[in-house]
Amino acid sequence: MPSKLDQLRTMTVVVADTGDIEAIRQFQPIDATTNPSLLLKAATLPHYQPLVRESIAKAKAQGGDWLADCMDELAVRIGREILDVVPGRVSTEIDARLSFDTAATINRGMALVEKYQSAGISPERILLKIASTWEGIRAAAELEKKGVQCNLTLLFGFDQAAAAADAGAFLISPFVGRILDWHKANSGQQDYLAHEDPGVMSVRTIYNYYKQCKYDTIVMGASFRNTGEIEALSGCDRLTISPQLLSDLSADHAELPRNLHPHQTGENIDYQLGNEPTFRYRMNANAMATDKLAEGIRNFVADQIKLEKMLWEMGS
To answer: Which domains does the chain have, with CATH numbers?
Structure first.
């Protein structure tokens, strides 16, 4: 029997949730995703030290706000390294401090695209990761119109997913494990069967809704805590998986059935899209989505600041 990882590849596009180039080479995913936390970890690896030094030197030579330019330069250089290994796309995060500024997100996104193009990478091979705030979703809508594909991340609620698809986002990243974390911390229940996992149930509902409405937006489950969550979402458009869980799936040779299918979506999901006030009200009513979105932005910003501090010290 093939490994569960190989079986999963027959029904789902497997994406590596890491910036570690050696792990990406080992598991050979189609795409790879990065974020400030993963870039911070990657920047400490020996393999990337030349890229870090080159990014600092180039940013300082250009003058001005060299630190912000260095952050984007490093993200693009690591992204280019990853694209030398994966055949598909790499996701690069826009500064999470811009999560509530549509215009600034668009401008920073276009600057990243230009840097990738200068490095010989076409826009078709990158996804800009943007937090799924109202402002972030609106920025993604405008970037998609410019031919720049977006990955709406830090997505925890159905309302975010519906708004993202309506905006024409190329891809969304619902965070399965972080949804589970919140329910464990707030419900008093610690153990969940895989098919009853709140994060799994959330992604399943979003997937079925997208297929029923014939949205082209790709659903990519993310932030997994165990292989059971991954197996319960087999058949999802894409799943982005950490190296440890990829290894666990690779070592398991039991049968893996398909659990999501575009033509088996259950009862029709009745949902009415709303305007900005409606979106904000619904998000406010969803304590889990509100808490985890805010926490996710804070954590990405904290790691962004740590990475900036490291680069500043190296460049001083």
So the answer is: 4-315 (3.20.20.70)
